[in-house]
Design goal:
There is one protein chain. With about 475 residues, the protein is α/β, with parallel strands linked by helices. The chain has three domains: about 5-20 and about 340-455, no CATH class; about 35-120 and about 250-330, Bordetella uptake gene, domain 1 (D-Maltodextrin-Binding Protein, domain 2); about 125-250, Periplasmic binding protein-like II (D-Maltodextrin-Binding Protein, domain 2, 3-Layer(aba) Sandwich). Helices cover about 45% and strands about 15% of the residues. It contains 17 helices and 13 strands. It has helices spanning about 5-15, 45-60, 75-80, 140-145, 160-175, 190-200, 210-215, 230-235, 265-275, 290-295, 305-320, 325-330, 340-360, 375-385, 395-415, 415-430, 435-455; strands at about 35, 65-70, 90-95, 115-130, 150-155, 180-185, 205, 220-225, 250-260, 280-285, 285, 360-365, 390. Strands 1, 2, 3, 4, 5, 6, 7, 8 and 9 form a nine-stranded mixed sheet that branches. A two-stranded antiparallel sheet has the order 10-11. Helix 1 packs antiparallel against helix 16 (about 415-430), helix 15 (about 395-415) runs antiparallel to helix 16 and helix 16 (about 415-430) packs antiparallel against helix 17 (about 435-455). The longest helix is centred in the C-terminal third of the chain and has 22 residues, at about 395-415. It is globular.
């Protein structure tokens, strides 16, 4: 049998494989949805995202999986959410950082790259110290800053993120500069609060709901809320009187999709969000507004048109704010945003060069030779047959590299099932498996992996082109 004939069973089974993991029907939605959160697990944005996912599942009848795409000071998550395929299966939990990242030269992405659906809440920044801290009031903390400029460390988010700008605004309000407190970048409020408890930093600037559990437990103390007016968040939280500071900066969260998402899909999502934010949808007997009130989140909600106008105004405001001289002193750190990718690329290049220079000697897949006295006749025959499949190492190396390139370039288009099936079947045949065995194993294993990740582990995989 020639090589083409041997491959026919594999090609046939791969064609069958392309239909695995697909859902019939053309109504939206008919498969799992991804909700991208640009900040770390445990923070306020993550908690709102995960609760919203539960309610969207109830409304849409499909799993909604939250992915924490952190890094790049918010660029990674916003890019992944808003630059995804515009089919409504990737939602983005947008935050205040979308209004400022492009002004800082970190990305070209801005609010015009999204189709805004609805805003969900707006929370003012607040100042927190440890529960046993020597600072009992905001004025005492300010006095320490004046007495020792640069002596205190603060965190809450990435450098020049929302909470960093809030702290800088507080410093400017009593004639200090943003650099008078050292900002330690982090992936969100939750890791920053843990650093505060461990004593590695002195101040955390974030919203009250993000610190609610630690605040109720007495592990942290809130010195002031940057609401610009008295009382609004205090009744909601049922806390002792906390002073409202003269400065004001609010973090907001809202849902959006890629800007070219079809209008009918946007309408379906907006209708679901309207029912959720109005309290018409219940999960475990609780509505979304009840969750927000119980956790202390503000729940100011803006419909699509109003949300778009809000995004435009916010973008203009931060363009002016980040252009001020005071904020030019705020450094994001000595390591640039391309340091890690450049280092990883350089190391990969060096590794590849070493492999190429070392050569690719022939290798027998059967393993090392053994003496005639140590093996049976049957083993010798088997070894002789397998050794007929001697494969140059460079072909094996090239096949692995080619598999990575194939999945990188075609995985999103072909989908996980088809691309992984082609790779697994091809590598199996190259390594000596019989074509019909390789095809059979592929058809069984790949769909099982797909179902396991999507429906059990709730990790979305690319579905690729639609075959129906």
């Amino acid at each position: 049998m020639n090589s083409a004939a041997k491959l026919r069973p594999v090609l046939f089974l791969v064609c069958l494989l392309s239909l695995s993991g697909c859902t019939q029907g053309d109504s939206y939605p008919n498969r799992p949805i991804t909700l991208v959160c640009p900040w770390a697990a445990g923070g306020g944005t993550d908690r709102v995202s995960r609760q919203m996912a539960f309610y969207l599942e109830e409304e849409l009848g499909q799993p909604v999986n939250v992915i924490n795409a952190t890094g790049g000071q918010g660029v990674t998550g916003h890019s992944r959410g808003l630059q995804a395929k515009p089919d409504g299966y990737t939602l983005s939990m947008m935050t205040l950082e979308l209004s400022m990242l492009h002004w800082r030269g970190l990305t070209r992405l801005d609010w015009t790259d999204c189709a805004p659906l609805m805003s969900l809440n707006e929370d003012p920044a607040a100042l927190f110290v440890r529960g046993d801290s020597k600072w009992k009031t905001e004025k005492e903390l300010a006095a320490s800053v004046v007495a020792e400029p640069g002596g205190l460390r603060a965190s809450g988010t990435a450098a020049l993120g929302a909470w960093h700008l809030a702290l800088a605004s507080w410093l400017i309000s009593f004639d200090r500069t943003p650099s008078d407190v050292n900002w330690i970048p982090s992936q969100g409020a939750n890791p920053s609060l843990q650093e505060l408890l461990s004593g590695d930093i002195d101040i955390v600037c974030c919203s009250v709901p993000e610190a609610r559990a630690l605040l109720d437990a007495g592990q942290v103390r809130c010195l002031g809320i940057m609401s610009g007016r008295e009382g609004t968040p205090l009744k909601l939280l049922n806390l002792k009187e906390i002073p409202s500071l003269d400065c004001e900066l609010k973090g907001w969260r809202g849902l959006g999709v890629a800007k070219d998402t079809p209008a009918e899909i946007q309408e379906t999502l907006v209708a679901a969000l309207r029912r959720i934010t109005n309290g018409e949808t219940k999960v475990a007997g609780k509505t979304f507004p009840e969750f927000m009130d119980g956790e202390g989140f503000d729940r100011t909600s803006r419909p699509t048109t109003e949300f778009a106008a809000f995004l435009k105004k916010s973008d203009e405001t931060f363009g002016e704010l980040l252009g001020r001289d005071e904020f030019q002193e705020v450094a994001s750190g000595p390591v640039g945003r391309m340091a890690f990718p450049a280092t990883a690329f350089a190391m990969g290049g060096v590794s590849l060069l070493i492999v190429l220079l070392s050569g690719f000697p022939q290798r027998k897949l059967a393993g090392a030779a053994v003496s005639d006295s140590a093996v049976s006749t049957r083993q010798e025959v088997t070894t002789e047959k397998i050794s007929d499949h001697n494969t140059p190492n460079y072909w094996l190396f090239a096949s692995v590299v080619g598999s990575i390139v194939l999945f990188t370039l075609a995985g999103e288009f072909l989908g996980f099932v088809l691309s992984a099936g082609i790779i697994l079947a091809g590598l199996s045949v190259l390594l000596g498996a019989k074509p019909h065995i390789a095809g059979l194993v592929t058809v069984v294993i790949v769909p099982v992996i797909y179902q396991l990740f999507v429906y059990v582990l709730r990790v979305p995989l690319p579905t690729g082109i639609v075959w129906w």
